[in-house]
């Protein structure tokens, strides 16, 4: 059977370029024994350092983004530690659950789910209570399409001596990330979002302050796969804690090369995101967020008179384009278009918005003009 794959315009996983798929098919060596592979792995980590603007250690772990998130919590949090969970959305709130799993005594700083974190409010909160070992924060709230000002939040946390764990899975490669300048302690990403590599890998940068916590725990880390500590001397010892997913890493390396070869990639994401938003608003539809719009995903309220399911099904069936909805409290209320990595190009957004326009018209949704035309006007 020949599969006619749809154009995947979801906010991850994203389209994987043919070059990246070819890299995946390179004949693997034995990654535990072949010294060349240790160099290859290190070199890929160095490319990630460039993406993150950091000299901190970087590791690639064999599991999807959630592994990075859980490994950071498992490695930094001891039972009874006070953890600040900065929460303005579904992923932000869920981070608190991971902290609790490892015994964290979690306190939530909750803010408006339709806006990015207000730095003034957070500052007021910390003036009252700042006795936290660790804080968790999501850079881009993917379900809502909101980006948080990590450039202001992380330095503030550092001022109070709080070590930050930042989930930047849907931001790295599409938003500016300056780990060293902004004092970000652990920053984690995934292969399948803006880097447009196949799903299956997470990577993270680890600051000296984070390593200090890991090295000076009272209670050893309960686990192995989520234990960042076991990696401390991997390069010097030429030792991996488990056999590396070598083909996935070949693909990731190639995908990062593709991204880095376009050094305007943050600007490109910003420009496309802006044009998509303007097209949505000008045509009379509504965005979910009130402010703090993400460069990588646009979240649109499902207009009255049509269901999310119908839009999703018709876009797929009639146009062979896959968009996404959301989950939890946003289930059936929004539709999401990803403009990440390989998907963040004018022609892909044009045909996606044209398909959306045609689908909404089928359900007699009133539009002020053609969505895709507004997009072109803005680009
Ligand atoms: C995609 C994503 C993850 C990884 O979660 P999956 O749903 O398993 O792909 C983690 N955090 C954020 C913010 C994400 O967007």
From TrEMBL:
Residue sites binding substrate per the record: 336
Keyword Transmembrane on entry: no
GO molecular function, a single term: L-serine-pyruvate transaminase activity
Gene3D superfamilies to which the protein is assigned, alphabetical: Aspartate Aminotransferase, domain 1, Type I PLP-dependent aspartate aminotransferase-like (Major domain)
Residues where N6-(pyridoxal phosphate)lysine is found: 193
Biological process per Gene Ontology, one example term: glycine biosynthetic process, by transamination of glyoxylate
Domain Aminotransferase class V: 32-266
InterPro entries according to UniProt: Aminotrans_V_dom, PyrdxlP-dep_Trfase, PyrdxlP-dep_Trfase_major, PyrdxlP-dep_Trfase_small, SP_NH2Trfase/AEP_transaminase
Keyword tags: Aminotransferase, Pyridoxal phosphate, Transferase
Cofactor: pyridoxal 5'-phosphate
PANTHER family, sorted: ALANINE--GLYOXYLATE AMINOTRANSFERASE 1, AMINOTRANSFERASE CLASS V
The family this protein is said to belong to: Belongs to the class-V pyridoxal-phosphate-dependent aminotransferase family.
Official protein name in the record: Aminotransferase, class V
Protein source organism: Gottschalkia purinilytica
